[in-house]
């Protein structure tokens, strides 16, 4: 009987015009076993006019006939076995309308299943109720679930202190739970929007405030439910169009390339300029193909095949967005929260396939930062991530991956790790990490292998330009005059007939490094790019002058490797103790700094002695 009631609700949802443009707000009920999650949900359905009274009556009759006490939870528990055992064994999702708004209420069976459903995309809650039994008080699971909600990035959380009837509606009991739990939630990064005393059995504080708790002046359950903010409709969000395939279409003579995929969010139409990540290639939508005739636009949830001008060479897994829209992140190193499902522990030496949307990249675990037992959330030995553990890890990909770090785009933030053919774990990408020094050697040998040399040899260039290609790096603390000296030396070299060029750090950070923020965490990657840009310029035979803040010995060694075989000359400026072993030290007392540098370069045979 109850199964029927639930399936009718689904039908009803269809007839309520709940489409992707009228997205239901998903609200999950979490909390310790038996604290009344299903009862609160069931009572909420019963209290709202949405539920036909005869359905409730049928349920009462069913319970009577089967010798059971009537339970509101039965309304929610959608599986027959569940009623037999009295526990929730699967995620019941119930479409529901209240005050002309669409909701999807999720009765979470246990946090592990819920977490699994969230990371694999089976469930996607935007708000949560955390149910606590007034008599039993805060239990382990109450805390775990709080932690889990924060892990999943749920910000709209309301605490429900249920079964107030069992504690004679005692204000002191309620307040003691409220005062203990709020600080815990704050610690895991959640501010509860409200803490409501309830009785699912008696229906207190559901749709209006109950006279049994005159001391409570906060909102009732209906009010907070209607207060949750709905997600922006998918079509209104920024475009995310992951490429599933590229077809070369030669039926007509045009040999068109069709770029095919399903729009996760946003809209696209002919004439739009798209940027594809991670390649950052740009093109304009020439047509949106649709059988039997072409259209001009496609929207969230639709499969689309588009043609582009110019035609780009792209691969499956690239994600398109509008050029001027919320950009995606891309990189080869990330930090992630991982939920491990496989019986075989996560292994650092092994490579896994990471799948995110339509992209698939080879991934290795670089570091296991934190491991917790998913049921106790207690920290564990960091070396092993076993089945049902939650870990904070750093991953390193073989190819660059495009992704989002924003909960608004869950499909390009959540990933699964595949071991062979099996999904071994899943999680959320939480941070992008800059380039790792450990990867440098690998990357440089790759570059060497793929390098396409110039027809003009190094020695021919040296002979023609009369100079040895050198990176002259001026470093030191702030306001030590690095930039001014670099530019003066550049000018002096030029006047002497040499071929110098000045490469400012700002030109790299806001040009080649425009996809990275200028924050300190990206310094190594910015330096790497500075090194690569210098390497190209040095290859043409130039003397490259660069000024950078407080370069260290390690960073110097890095740059040396990147620009090799060209040479690196370092100049430390300022009177403070240097952060590196520099070839030359200059401070305010050095009389002619430009001449000192030029003499050094002459001695080192970078440039000929003046006059020769
Ligand atoms: P699981 O899904 O198994 O984790 O349990 P649950 O959290 O969904 O709890 P459920 O709604 O099944 O309720 C557990 C028991 O508590 C049932 O026997 C309910 O009748 C009882 N219960 C729920 N709410 C109330 C309440 O407000 N007052 C009283 N007295 N009992 C309640
Ligand atoms: Mg339940």
Query: Kindly, what is the distance between the CA atoms of the first and last residues, rounded to a whole number of angstroms?
Result: 102 Å
Strand order of the largest sheet: 2-3-1-4-5-6
The number of distinct helices, counting runs of at least 4 residues, comes to 16
The general outline is: elongated
Low-confidence stretches: 1-21, 78-84
Topology:
Layout: H1 2-15, E1 25-31, H2 37-47, H3 53-65, H4 73-76, H5 80-85, E2 92-98, E3 101-107, H6 111-120, E4 127-133, H7 140-151, E5 156-162, H8 171-187, E6 194-197, H9 221-227, E7 241-249, E8 256-262, E9 267-269, E10 273-277, E11 281-289, E12 297-299, E13 303-309, E14 319-322, E15 329-340, E16 351-356, E17 359-373, E18 389-403, E19 414-419, E20 422-432, H10 440-450, H11 458-465, E21 470-476, H12 482-495, E22 500-504, H13 505-512, H14 523-539, E23 543-549, H15 553-563, E24 567-573, E25 584-586, H16 593-603
Parallel strand pairs: 1-3, 1-4, 4-5, 5-6, 21-23, 21-24, 22-23, 24-25
Antiparallel strand pairs: 2-3, 7-8, 7-14, 8-13, 9-12, 10-11, 10-14, 11-13, 15-18, 15-20, 16-17, 16-19, 17-18, 19-20
Helix pairs in contact: 12-16, 13-14, 14-15
The chain binds guanosine-5'-triphosphate and magnesium ion.
Attribute tags:
612 residues, alpha/beta, 6-stranded mixed β-sheet, 6-stranded antiparallel β-barrel, 16 helices, 28% helix, disordered N terminus, binds guanosine-5'-triphosphate, binds magnesium ion
């Amino acid at each position: 009987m109850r199964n029927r009631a639930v399936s009718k609700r689904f039908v009803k949802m269809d007839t309520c015009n709940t489409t992707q443009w009228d997205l239901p707000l998903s609200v999950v009920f979490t909390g310790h076993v038996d604290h009344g999650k299903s009862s609160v949900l069931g009572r909420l359905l019963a209290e709202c006019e949405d539920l036909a009274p005869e359905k409730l009556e049928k349920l009462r009759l069913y319970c009577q006939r089967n010798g059971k006490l009537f339970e509101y939870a039965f309304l929610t528990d959608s599986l027959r076995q569940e009623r037999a055992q009295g526990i929730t064994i699967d995620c019941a999702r119930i479409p529901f309308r209240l005050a002309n708004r669409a909701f999807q209420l999720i009765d979470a069976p246990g946090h592990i299943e819920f977490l699994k459903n969230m990371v694999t995309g089976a469930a996607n809650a935007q708000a949560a109720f955390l149910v606590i039994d007034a008599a039993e008080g805060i239990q382990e699971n109450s805390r775990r679930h709080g932690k889990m909600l924060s892990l999943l990035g749920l910000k709209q959380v309301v605490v429900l202190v249920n079964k107030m009837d069992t504690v004679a509606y005692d204000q002191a009991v309620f307040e003691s739970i409220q005062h203990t739990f709020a600080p815990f939630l704050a610690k895991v990064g959640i501010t509860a929007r409200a803490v409501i005393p309830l009785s699912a059995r008696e229906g207190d504080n559901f749709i209006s405030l109950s006279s049994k708790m005159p001391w409570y002046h906060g909102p009732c359950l209906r009010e907070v439910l209607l207060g949750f903010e709905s997600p922006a409709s998918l079509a209104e969000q920024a475009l995310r169009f992951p490429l599933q395939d590229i077809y070369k279409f030669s039926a007509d003579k045009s040999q068109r390339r069709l770029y095919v995929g399903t729009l996760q969010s946003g809209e696209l139409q002919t004439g739009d300029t798209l940027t594809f990540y991670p390649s950052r290639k740009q093109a304009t939508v020439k047509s949106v193909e649709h059988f039997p005739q072409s259209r001009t636009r496609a929207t969230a949830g639709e499969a689309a095949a588009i043609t582009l001008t110019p035609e780009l060479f792209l691969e499956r897994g690239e994600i398109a967005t509008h050029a001027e829209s919320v950009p995606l992140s891309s990189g080869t190193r990330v930090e992630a929260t991982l939920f491990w499902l496989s019986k075989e522990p996560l292994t650092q030496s092994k490579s896994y396939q990471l799948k995110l949307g339509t992209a698939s990249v080879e991934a290795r675990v670089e570091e296991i930062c934190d491991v917790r037992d998913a049921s106790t959330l207690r920290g564990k030995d960091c070396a092993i991530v076993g089945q049902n553990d939650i870990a904070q890890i750093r991953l390193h990909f073989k190819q660059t991956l495009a992704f989002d770090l924003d909960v608004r785009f869950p499909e390009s933030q959540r990933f699964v790790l595949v071991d062979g053919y099996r999904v071994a774990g899943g999680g959320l990408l939480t941070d992008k990490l800059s380039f790792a020094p450990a990867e440098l050697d690998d990357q440089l040998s790759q570059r060497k292998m793929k390098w396409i040399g110039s027809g003009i040899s190094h020695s021919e260039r040296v002979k023609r330009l009369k100079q040895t290609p050198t990176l002259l790096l001026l470093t030191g603390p702030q306001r030590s005059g690095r930039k001014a000296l670099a530019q003066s030396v550049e000018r002096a070299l030029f006047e002497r007939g040499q071929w110098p060029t000045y490469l400012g750090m700002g030109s790299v950070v806001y040009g080649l490094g425009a996809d990275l923020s200028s924050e300190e965490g990206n310094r190594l990657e910015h330096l790497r790019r500075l090194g690569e840009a210098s390497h190209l310029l040095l290859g043409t035979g130039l003397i490259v002058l660069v000024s950078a803040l407080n370069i260290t010995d390690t960073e110097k060694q890095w740059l040396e490797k990147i620009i090799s075989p060209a040479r690196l000359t370092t100049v430390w400026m300022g009177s403070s103790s240097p952060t590196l072993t520099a070839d030359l030290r200059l401070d305010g007392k050095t009389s002619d700094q430009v001449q000192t540098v030029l003499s050094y370069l002459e001695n080192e045979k970078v440039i000929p002695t003046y006059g020769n």
